[in-house]
Amino acid sequence: MRARWVLCATLLTTPLFAEPWSSAGPYGGAITAFAAASSRVLYAGSAGGVFKSEDGGATWRDISHGLRNIVMVAVAPVDSTTAYVVARNRVYKTIDSATWTDITPGLPAELRPTALIVDPQNAKTIYVGSACIPDFIAVEFTEAAGVYKSTDGGQSWTRAVNGLIGFAVCVNELSLDPAAPSHLFLGALFDNWQSFNGGAMWQRTSAALPTRRVVAHPQLALTRYGIENANRPSFLVSNDGGLTWTATAPFGLPVALFGDLSIDPATARLFLATALGTFRSGDGGENWIPVSGTSPRLPAYGVAVDSMDSRLILATAQGVSYASLPGADPWSEDPIHDLSTNVVSIAVDPTNLAIIYASTVDAVNANGLPTVGRVFRSRDAGRSWQLVRDDDPRLHAIVALTVDPAGDLYGTGPYGFSKLPAGSDNWIHQFSETLSTSIVSRSLSADPQLPGVIFLSSSLSGLQRTRDGGKTWRAFPFSVNQIAVDPTNSLRVYAATPFGFWRSIDGGDTFPGIFPTPFPPPFPPVPPPPPTWAVAVAASRPNVIYRVSGSDLLPFALFRSEDFGVTWKSLRHPAESDNRPPQILIDPHDESVVYLISFNRGVLRSADGGLSWKSLNSGLVDTDVNTGVIDPADQFLRVGTHSAGAWQMPLAPRGRAVRTR
Question: Phi and psi (nearest 5°) for 33?
């Protein structure tokens, strides 16, 4: 016993980590901000930063210089070196792609940018549209809303709202006619408005207006095309220089939000980026067909035509890609190596610790359910990542991963359940009616000892278990947030449920529960226990269990048990007030070393069983952390972030043997 304490003391007096956080991807996250100064000079913005191409998208360079979470970018063709971006509700400007200046001073403190446009003939004239705070409530809450104009490159601003009445200042969309830049189009909460004098005066119109984007026909001087989303997605045409507009009934377009509109200056072919893919029209927008080689499900946010090299360039939920015109097929992926991927799950192969899997969510629908995502694999312990390809679109929204003791990968999401056998590149899909296919699964857990035993926990359809690798399933009629299996004894299974903490001692066949039935008739004798969101079992001492409980009204409290979950001790922690419950990770060799993975506060560590906590965020670019895992050898702590990919930190204190490859 004395030798054991000497070893622990040695560990505690030596440096905790061998080196800081590092990341090598996966790359290719959503490019949600895109602007073309010309067919050659392009700007792209993402959660990872700002990127610039001067060769039509063939190569890109990072010009972020510390800026992240870019939601808008704008540039004028007359000055391709001057660009503007919006990042976290602030407006920045660069004139040399080397430094950024915050030009938000002079704008309201509660600015909510919804549009950023630059006069194509004067790079110093900028417009910013701002929404109401909060939406819909009352006009007196709109002091920060409206249109703001600068004519000196952002040194000073004027609120340009003359003529706008009531909620008209709640700007949802803003655009201008590139052939007549003083003609502006505004989409508000209930009306469309336009200004013919650069915002000095606004006029209401009951007709649809192109409040999202306007392009001019390259040969027909009075012909314009435009799109709007403010009221409903519409494609519009004007034959009188933008004075009047007609909403058409385009054939072939889906009912989806429009992202961007571009026109080929050589052929006048139109290209439209939408939330459900990219489309082209060769007859002025009357008929549309999908652009060859693009996914019909992949949201596109920007589109540009490189007339010099005759290429189409797309900014999508999976990065930037380009293809030759007119067929636009095959496509090449971009070389933007930005850390902008939203990694929602990480799993390590216990049979080969160099193999790591990461799943990403690239786009969600109006209900917040993932619609586009990918699965990546690293064979070199995270130093590089490769896409695990599959043609089945249902695979592209996996939100939870796990690997069983045989090395088989399992994934699940709103479209069902998939399996990737060890050593294979071919997925096996289990889209059974008995599985939850409409609700995102909350958790996927593999038995650490028994191959093929998987627990799938979903929000509405309850717990489901397979013992044959997904061929057959057993459903349990209660909802579960997370399952944890004792690493030393597969018979002990613990469930974090909306009705408290439950325990099984027969491998999950029954869950008597530590707490009584939540609502016994006629009324519960005591208030029902708060929901339990996370649970973890210590591999070194399986009698030690940690759980997180709480609700919208109660803080996310951490509890520790030393008797297999019979009695509990409450512990305080810094993430109690977060808007999401934290995930619990336990050091495989020491039950007192605990990590909390917090979406708001990054990574927290306790070396004394949860009594005190320290932040491990130094060097971690994004502290909005979705998920984390400790590999079975306790060699690395790996986390997946909301906007910066997967990161890892060695956990190799002196005195502990670490397996190397």
Answer: -130, 130
